[in-house]
Amino acid sequence: MLVAGRTPPDVVSLIRSIRAFRPELSPREGEVVAYIAAGFTHDQTATRIGLSPHTVDTYLRRVRAKLNAGTTAELIRLSLTGAATRRPG
């Protein structure tokens, strides 16, 4: 959930991009990906949005599955570009 004054502007911008390119992601999944894409660690992301690090990891695993992404870098690229997911290989 976006909190005015608490969410860094670069993260807000990333969240908006993710929502535009990836409507299949839940708002919370998009928020978690945005924090990771902005360079926050799992622990920092968890603290910022009021989750446990384990829950952050769970959200990222769900997003990887939805986008068929094998790595964090690929997950971020697919989330922010709207590129087609890779085909099983």
Keywords:
89 residues, mainly alpha, Arc Repressor Mutant, subunit A, 5 helices, 64% helix, disordered N terminus, Sig_transdc_resp-reg_C-effctor, transcription, Tscrpt_reg_LuxR_C, HTH luxR-type domain-containing protein
What does the model show?
The chain has 89 residues and is mainly α. It has one domain (9-81): Winged helix-like DNA-binding domain superfamily/Winged helix DNA-binding domain (Arc Repressor Mutant, subunit A). Helix content is 64%, strand content 0%. It is built from five helices and no strands. The chain has helices spanning 9-21, 27-37, 42-49, 53-67, 72-81. Helix 2 packs across helix 4 and helix 4 (53-67) crosses helix 5 (72-81). The N and C termini lie far apart (36 Å). Mean pLDDT is 84; it is low at 1-5. InterPro entries: Sig_transdc_resp-reg_C-effctor, Tscrpt_reg_LuxR_C, WH-like_DNA-bd_sf. This is HTH luxR-type domain-containing protein. It holds the Pfam family GerE. Residues 18-83 form the HTH luxR-type domain. Keywords: DNA-binding, Transcription, Transcription regulation.
